[in-house]
Amino acid sequence: MKHLISAADLSLDEILSILDTAEEMSVVNDRDVKKLPTLRGKTVVNLFFEDSTRTRISFEVAAKRLSADVINFSAKGSSVSKGESLKDTAQTLEAMGAQALIVRHHASGAAHNLANSGWISSHIINAGDGKHEHPTQALLDAFTMRKRIHGSHSRGKSLDGLKVLIVGDVLHSRVARSNLLLLRSLGAEVRLAAPATLLPANPNFLGASYYLGLDDAIDEFHPDVVMMLRVQLERMSASFFPTAREYSRGWGLSAERLARLSENAIVMHPGPMNRGLEISSEAADSAQSTVLEQVANGISVRMSVLYHLMSGETRE
Q1: Which CATH architecture has domain 7-134+295-310?
Q2: Which helix (H) or strand (E) holds 19?
Q3: Contact 223, 163 (CB under 8 A)
Q4: Does the pLDDT at position 315 exceed 70?
Q5: What stretches of 34-143 adopt beta strand conformation (E)?
Q6: Per-state percent for the chain, helix, strand, coil, to nearest 5
Q7: 3-state SS assignment for residue 101
Q8: CA–CA separation, 8 vs 21, rounded Å?
Q9: What is the model's pLDDT at position 76?
Q10: Per-residue confidence at 314, pLDDT binned at 50, 70, 90?
Q11: 151-203 pLDDT tens trace
């Protein structure tokens, strides 16, 4: 692996290798001294053109636990705000010694362009590009599912037969797209549930069956995993649903809908959550919720991704 741009770029063997290495990294993260010398002397840059808290901090912690030097670059107040291009910014950072750029950008395809343009030789990790993809989120979600299902015997396991329901703002969600690709590679059956206004114009191109009613999806599909998507109000230039109350009533994971799930079903959310909109506090704080596990697991998974890209080795 040279870059991580899309979940579609990963073979099943590569996915399992990343998840298995993340298992080892999670052991490190449980120790008193949470450090490995793996990337000592290497520099990782968080190149973020969009606001982020958990993704940026997660990558920062992951890189530091592998002993890399970390630079956080925000487009706000930088030369980018004065008109410098993505190409010039990336070349400048590489000239300063960056071996890896973790890129979050508002334009779909930005990370792909950097990785394939020939402008720079650094490793590129896509930390979210527009409405396109967010592959490390899909990896940490898969890792979390696998841990919940297989526990301490997760190593080498796929997600064959697992029924995953992705609910909500599919139209604007890079998380949904990456999860669809990655989870299908792992053998899961993935379906969508969303209002018609929050599905792509041709939802069939996503390759997943979909429901236009959350209650129907729960009653007919009987999901093992319900992944609630954040309603991305900042990406909406028009009204996609009448009111927040109407959305919550029709599409929110309420206490009543939670009770209708299997007692072994798990509830996921990529965060940050709009409590009371797409998910109730009862669901978010329930024993079935993996929200905080996803945050913790994100560090282990991102350590694994950095290891596979930058260490020059492949663990067996």
Answers
A1: 3-Layer(aba) Sandwich (3.40)
A2: helix 12-29
A3: yes
A4: no
A5: 43-48, 69-74, 100-105, 123-129
A6: 45, 15, 40
A7: strand
A8: 20
A9: 66
A10: very low
A11: 988 999 999 999 999 999 999 999 999 999 999 999 999 999 999 999 988 88
The CA distance from 100 to 41, in Å, is 12
Mean per-residue pLDDT for 39-66? 95
**C-alpha separations of 274 from 219, 232, 313 in Å:** 24, 10, 41
| Each residue's pLDDT tens digit, 78-98 | 555 545 788 999 999 999 999
Report the CATH number of the 135-294 domain.
Answer: 3.40.50.1370
Radius of gyration for the alpha carbons in the chain, expressed in angstroms and rounded: 19
**307 DSSP 8-state letter:** H
| Residue spans in the chain of domains classed CATH 3.40.50.1370 | 7-134+295-310, 135-294
- CB atoms inside a 10 Å sphere around CB 200: 15
Can you tell me the distance from the alpha carbon of 268 to that of 144, in angstroms, rounded to the nearest whole number? 9
Q: What is the pLDDT of residues 89-144, one digit of tens each?
A: 999 999 999 999 999 999 999 999 999 999 999 999 999 999 999 999 999 999 99
Non-local CB neighbours of 312 within 8 Å, separated by 6+ positions: none
> CA dist 108 to 104, 112, 173, 304, Å?
10, 9, 12, 25
Return the number of other C-beta atoms located less than 10 Å from residue 88's C-beta: 13
Q: What is the predicted pLDDT for the residue at 297? A: 98
Axis crossing angle, helix 12-29 with helix 54-65, rounded to the nearest 10: 80
